[in-house]
Design a protein that fits this description.
alpha/beta, 3 domains, Rossmann fold, 14 helices, globular
């Protein structure tokens, strides 16, 4: 796994084919001895395994290799801890960390048994200590959930306030390190952290932008996606992507220079689908980092992009392709409208108020069965209405 972490230098890497996964140590004894020699020769203080490692395997490997070890989930949690800035982001990271640590208490089993004098095969003090640690973690998780609930309620109030402002939302999404924040900064003049590192953005950032066409939009920069997101983080960070469900246009930013760009695209599209994003939401694909391509490759991709009105080869660094992309955003915001007649019971006055806030009610009358409204709306507005 190639990562850009501060104060860490990659001393070496290796792909280890596994014909058989050893339950207690992941690798066979011969491979462990070989890795131990390499680690000692390189003076490495940390081993990263790009995949899942069970608590028992982690404990045994750390003993055998005589160094700290992190699996994929542990590494991502460390990166998230370093990147979170807002109160909500910090709380979500802490909760994910605690959930992960709760499953790792087995690593301390032998230490606790020795310290407390337990025998290990009849329960004993060691088990009591582990249970106490789990209770402490559960109590801390409950405290964090209550704090997070308050933050989420505040965010919902902010979203409700934005819903009353007649500005459409344009959400930037994409695989981590695709260049979303660099593009966001160029379009808004903001100073969102944009670096060549995983998960430089963990907290959603929103700015009002006036396009050259005169349209005013809310541009949203979101957390980067990643394949095989750790289960501890799926629920915790889905909330940071809720803005995408409210978006009027989604701009999918791809690092077109990355060797696995097609696989990354598939991952992003799968996550969007799992979140409930439908074809009713216009999607524009931005092939970013065109400045990193050879001229011949860039020209060939440009020709491919020209055949699809919703694909653009761009560079957030040089500005290449951004103007036509923004013009297309304006076009997609002017989506086709249909006229429909609705009947809302009087108990659904909130839905009626939302229709009026959107400015899409053409006629209205009341009757014994409720509000009779004629609305002229886009497919996106209809989908949002149905989710109320």
């Amino acid at each position: 796994m190639a990562v850009a972490l501060p104060d860490l230098e990659v001393a070496g890497s290796e792909v280890v084919p596994l014909n058989k996964v050893h339950p207690g140590t992941l690798f066979g004894s011969g491979k462990i001895e070989e890795l131990k020699a390499r680690i000692k020769a390189a003076g490495a203080g940390l081993v990263l395994v790009d995949g899942p490692v069970s608590p028992v395997q982690q404990r045994n490997l750390e003993r055998a290799l005589e160094t700290k070890l992190l699996d994929r989930t542990g590494l991502i949690l460390e990166i998230f801890s370093d990147r979170a800035r807002t109160r909500e982001g910090v709380l979500q990271v802490e909760m994910a960390h605690l959930s992960y640590q709760r499953t790792r208490l087995v690593r301390a089993w032998t230490h606790l048994e020795r310290q407390r004098g337990g025998l290990g095969f009849v329960g004993g003090p060691g088990e009591t200590q582990i249970e106490a640690d789990r209770r402490a973690i559960d109590e801390q998780l409950n405290r964090l959930r209550k704090q997070l609930d308050k933050v989420v309620k505040t965010r919902k109030l902010h979203r409700a306030a934005r819903a009353k402002v007649p500005f459409p939302i344009v959400a930037l999404v994409g695989y981590t390190n695709a260049g979303k924040s660099t593009l966001f900064n160029r379009l808004t003049g903001a100073q969102v952290m944009a670096k060549d590192m995983l998960f430089a953005t963990l907290d959603p950032t929103m700015r009002k932008v006036e396009l050259e066409t005169g349209d005013e939009v809310i541009l949203s920069d979101t957390v980067g996606f990643i394949s095989d997101l750790p289960t501890q983080l799926v629920a915790a960070f889905r909330a940071t992507l809720e803005e995408v469900l409210e978006a009027d246009v989604i701009v999918h930013v791809r690092d077109i220079s990355h060797p696995e760009t097609e696989s990354q695209r598939a991952q992003v599209m799968t996550i969007l689908s799992d979140m409930g994003v439908t074809e009713a939401t216009p999607l524009i694909e931005v092939w970013n980092k065109g400045d990193l391509l050879d001229i011949e490759v860039a020209d060939a991709l440009e020709a491919r992009a020209d055949r699809d009105p919703d694909i653009f080869l761009t560079s957030a660094v040089t500005g290449r392709g951004l103007r036509p992309m923004l013009e297309r955003v304006s076009e997609r915001l002017s989506a086709p409208r249909t006229t429909e007649d609705l009947v809302l019971p009087y108990a659904q006055a909130r839905k009626r108020a939302w229709l009026h806030e959107e400015g899409i009610v053409e006629a209205e009358r009341t009757d014994d069965d409720g509000y009779h409204l004629r609305v002229n709306w886009t497919a996106r507005q209809k989908a949002r209405f149905e989710r109320l």
